[in-house]
Amino acid sequence: MQFLKSLYIHNTFFRYIAVLAGCFMLSFWIPILYPIAWILTLVLLGLFLFDIYLLYTHSKGLVANRVLPKKLSNSDLNPITIVFESFYPFKTYISLIDELPQQFQKRDFEHRTSLFRNEKKEFEYTVRPVERGEYVFGNLNVYASSALRIIKRRFVFQKDQMVPVYPSIIQMQQYDFLAISNNLTQVGLKKIRRIGHTQEFEQIKEYVAGDDIRTVNWKATAKQNQLMVNQYQDEKSQPIYSIIDTGRVMKMPFNGLKLLDYAINATLAFSNVALKKNDKTGMVSFSKKIETFVPAVQKLTHLNTILEKLYNITTEYTDSDFGLLYAHVKRKVTHRSLLLLYTNFEHISALKRQLPYLMGMAKKHVLVVIFFENTELEELISADAEDLQTIYHKTIAEKFSLEKRLMQKELQRYGIQTILTKPEELTINTINKYLEIKSRGLL
Length: 443
Prior knowledge:
Mean pLDDT: 87
Transmembrane segments: 12-30, 36-56
Structural class: alpha/beta
CATH superfamily of the largest domain: von Willebrand factor, type A domain
Protein name: DUF58 domain-containing protein
Domain DUF58: 204-347
Organism: Maribacter polysiphoniae
Keywords: Membrane, Transmembrane, Transmembrane helix
CATH class of the largest domain: Alpha Beta
C-alpha cells in the first residue's frame, strides 16, 4: 500500500498513450501501422517498469526540509525556505508542493526544478498572514521523476508543522534599528523643534552658536573663563500607556487587515521605541470590560510581556464602555502619563457620547486619541463623477470625510491631542506624536 500511495502517473505518460491510440486508429486505414502500434505499446510497458525500477531502487532518493521561523509576523512578508537534495545517480526532475495553512486559502502552490546527483538546492517563498493565531503547515510533498517522465514518486516530509503568527515583529525590528541608528527621518519620522526645554539636566558644555543663551551657566563660565551652558535632555522614565479599543468599530478591514491589528502592530513597534528611549510602557485593552492591563515598566524584557498580551487580543462585536475605561484609568494609573487611545469614530454623535470620559482622562494625563481615515472614501472622493449615482456617492463620502475633520477639531478644542491617520501610516504617525510630545515637554 505504501508503494501504491507513492506512485503517480506523469502527465507525459498520457501523451504517449494518446500517440498509441492515434496509431491504432490510423491502422484501420493503414494496416501496416497495427503491428507497429503493438510494438510501441510493449516498449512503453517496458519503459514504465524500468522507470519504476529507477525511482524505487533507492530508498532514500530525495531529502527535503522546510525551514520555518519560530514566529511569523502579522501583515508582513515572511520568508519560508525549503532545502532539498537528490541522491539519485541520474538527473532528477522535481515538482514541489507545500501544503500551506488554510488561512491563506491557496491551493495552487507548486515549484518545479531539476537536480543532479548529490546536488543541493534552496527555494524561498514568502507568505503574508493577516490574522494572528496558530498556522499549521501540512505535508511537504516532493514528486520525483526521471528523464523518461512516465511515473512520479511521491516523498512526504514534515507533516503538520505549527507556527504562531504574532503582531508585526518585523515592523518592530525595523523601527528599532532606525531608532538606534538615528535614521528615523528615512521613513517619515521627523524631528520636532524644541520649544523651551525640560528640566532633566544632562551636562555642562562649551557654548556654540545657536545655543539658548538662557541656559548659560555663569559659575562654570567664571571658572573656565569662557561661555559654558547647561545641556538638558528629554525626561526619562515617564509612564506611557497604549489603550486599544477592541469593540466592533475596530473590526473594519483595510487591505485585508483589521483596524485592531493595525493598532496592535503600532503598539508593539511604539512600545519598543519608547523603552529604548528609557520610558516606562504599559498597555490596556477594553471593550465591555477591561480585558488586559499591563502596568508601565521600564525594562526591555517587559516587551515580551506586552507581545504575549497583544497576541491574545481579539475583537468584540459590542460597543465599548468608555466610562469603564475612565474609571479604570483613574483607579490604576495614578501618575501623570501619556495615554495613546486607539479607537475609531465614524459619526460625530458617537464621539460626543464619549467626550465627557475623554475630557476626564485628559484632565490628569496627556491623552492622544488616534482614529482612522477611511481610505476607500478618499479614493471615491478623488475619482471623477460621470453620472448622477456617482455624484450622490461622492457627496455622501465627502460628508463622512468632513465629519472626521470636525471630530479632530472638536477634540482639539478641549485640549485633547489627536491623530487622524491612514491605517498603513499609523505606526509612523504615532511615533511622530510621541517625539513631538517629548520634545515640547508636555508630559
